[in-house]
Specification:
Chain A: This is Acetyl-CoA carboxylase biotin carboxyl carrier protein subunit. Chain A: Keywords: Biotin. Chain A: It holds the Pfam family Biotin_lipoyl. The complex is a heterodimer of chains A (71) and B (449). Chain A is mostly beta strands. Chain A contains no helices and 8 strands. In chain A, the strands form 2 sheets. Chain A has a 4-stranded antiparallel sheet, with no helix packed on it. Chain A has one domain (2-70): RNA polymerase II/Efflux pump adaptor protein, barrel-sandwich hybrid domain (OB fold (Dihydrolipoamide Acetyltransferase, E2P)). Chain B folds into 3 domains: 5-104, Rossmann fold; 142-202, Dna Ligase, domain 1 (2-Layer Sandwich), CATH 3.30.1490.20; 208-433, D-amino Acid Aminotransferase, Chain A, domain 1. Chain B has 14 helices and 20 strands. In chain B, α7 (142-152) packs across α8 (175-193). Chain B is globular. The chains are: A mainly beta (71), B alpha+beta (449). Chains A and B meet through loops of A and loops of B.
Chain lengths: 71, 449
């Protein structure tokens, strides 16, 4: 199982995928917002989204798990 | 008129900076703050503080009605907008005035005219201030584009009229390249933006970003306070600024300051303002924009001129004439400002969090304007700049030497900051020689001495 982690502390602006979606390595999966900057988070590996751990509006720290993937 | 109480419609370091001058003059300080900023020094240090709403700026620092209400309730006579937020919002300035308060800044009409890029460019052209040459309207065939490009001079930038944010732009260096690229650029503009109209602009190669501080009173006196070099930027945001510029020729300085005065007079400017220019490798200058407010980097000008810009803003707003003339302004020594951002120094990504330690050297030639202190939390809602470190001295060499010590000893713990980047910059060969342009942080890796 692979995880996608937050690259910075901030607010989840948008979750771009749902459980069951197929994602490719390098694909934007979540958009975070912090200090007036929108930062997309990419999945490092390809796979199927197993679980989305966060929702729009939630606050996340750097390194928090955003979603889990099944390869 | 003499102000008794002024409301500061801003937060963080600039709110503290403005409060400092107000207190020196015995003027009451009213702070406004969001729920996220409750524990910050600028709130505690104010004589009165009014909570204006929840953390998001739209509900607090951009809520003009709540701010004006706070001013009325506390009996403040004037509003200082600082920089960013509502400082260049003509509608807010007008509402402040309509509420019977004084807006510390130029006339709302001037803010509106300079805020509109097309109008600003037109006003400057009419005043004889050089702007980036370009086609007045769209070009529709490659032959027409080639005629215009010959007139402007290569290299030119081919842009989609409906584009933005760098999308649909091509640098063209020759007629052959233009002939080859024009049809595909037109096709792409149509496909991406639904409009195939293209226009041409002179491509300013490796520009430096140099700006001139101006001051004008209501009696018609306009002076400049020389220039600031602001070419070290990331994501188009300044990181390091110095006064004076280490690289421009004296003749260019004259051209810049003349143009800035003409620009200020052309719009009927009052108060403190900044005219930004691009300077190319051949020292040609082009108007970029005018900032109708106090600038973040104003302390380097203060260090070199010995003036208090916030104090002068108050004087002008109170209707007093400037207490000096152009001949009295003599730059002395050198100053460099380093912006300390709560961000990862390599990826430039924001790093909010709790500041567990915030400590720096103090002494001659060191000024730190900080929005936070040890124990404060840097929230994710606002700009990542947490402090400015301004180092001054007799000459640039002394300032660089002092900067290395000050930055090496600057300690911020708990959050990531760009201090490691700043520490590298002060050792970079190009920076030390004063030979750098806006590509400094993008193009090449930092060069160690």
């Amino acid at each position: 199982m692979q995880q996608v982690q937050s690259t910075m502390a901030g607010t989840v602006l948008q979750v771009l995928v749902q459980p069951g979606d197929q994602v490719e390595a390098g694909q934007d999966v979540v958009i975070l917002e912090s200090m007036k900057m929108e930062v997309p988070v990419q999945s490092e590996s390809s796979g199927t989204v197993k679980e989305v751990k966060v929702e729009a509006g939630a606050f996340v720290g750097e390194g928090d798990v955003l979603l889990e993937l099944d390869e | 008129m003499q102000f008794q109480k002024v409301l500061i419609a801003n937060r963080g370091e600039i709110a503290r900076r403005i409060a400092r001058t107000l207190k020196e003059r015995g003027i009451g300080v009213v702070a406004v703050y969001s729920e996220a900023d409750r524990d910050l020094p600028f709130v505690r240090e104010a004589d009165e503080a009014v909570c204006i709403g929840p953390p998001p700026v739209a509900q607090s620092y951009l809520n003009g009605k709540a701010i004006i209400r706070a001013a009325k309730e506390t009996g403040a006579e004037a509003v200082h907008p600082g920089y960013g937020l509502l400082s260049e919002n003509a509608g807010f300035a007008r509402e402040v005035m309509d509420a019977g308060l004084c807006f510390i800044g130029p006339d709302p009409e001037v803010i509106a005219r300079m805020g509109d890029k097309v109008t600003a460019r037109k006003v400057m052209e009419e005043a004889g201030v050089p702007v980036v040459p370009g086609t007045p309207g769209g070009v529709h065939t490659w032959e027409e584009a080639a005629r215009e490009a010959d007139r402007i001079g290569y290299p030119v930038m081919l842009k989609a009229s409906a584009g933005g944010g760098g999308i649909g732009m091509h640098v063209i260096r020759s007629r052959e390249e233009l002939e080859k690229l024009f049809p595909s650029a037109q096709g792409r503009a149509k496909a991406y933006f639904g409009d195939g109209t293209l226009f041409l602009e002179k491509f300013v190669e490796s520009p430096r970003h140099v700006e001139v501080q101006i001051l004008a009173d209501a009696q018609g006196n306009t002076v400049h306070l020389f220039e600031r070099e602001c070419s070290i930027q990331r994501r188009n945001q300044k990181v390091v600024e110095e006064c004076l510029s280490p690289s421009i020729e004296p003749a260019t300085r004259q051209k810049l300051t003349d143009a800035a005065i003409r620009a200020a007079k052309a719009v009927g400017y009052t108060g403190a303002g900044t005219v930004e220019f691009l300077v190319d490798a051949k020292e040609r200058i082009y108007f970029l924009e005018m900032n109708t407010r106090l600038q973040v980097e104003h302390p380097v000008t203060e260090a070199v001129t010995g003036l208090d810009l916030v104090g002068l803003q108050l004087d002008v707003a109170e209707g007093k004439p400037l207490p000096f003339s152009q001949a009295d302004v003599t730059p002395k020594g050198h100053a460099i400002e380093y912006r300390i951002y709560a961000e990862d120094p390599e990826r430039f990504l924001p790093s909010p969090g709790k500041v567990t330690r915030f400590q720096m050297l103090q002494g001659e030639g060191i000024r730190v304007d900080a929005g936070v202190e040890s124990g404060n939390t840097v929230s994710p809602y606002y700009d990542p700049m947490v402090a400015k470190c301004i180092v001054s001295g007799c000459n640039r060499g002394e300032v660089l030497e002092r900067s290395r010590q000050v930055l090496a000893a600057f300690q911020v713990e708990g959050i990531k900051t760009n201090l490691p980047l700043l520490q590298k910059i002060v050792h970079d060969v190009r920076f030390v020689q004063g030979k750098y342009d806006t590509g400094f942080l993008n193009n090449k890796p930092i060069q160690q001495r």
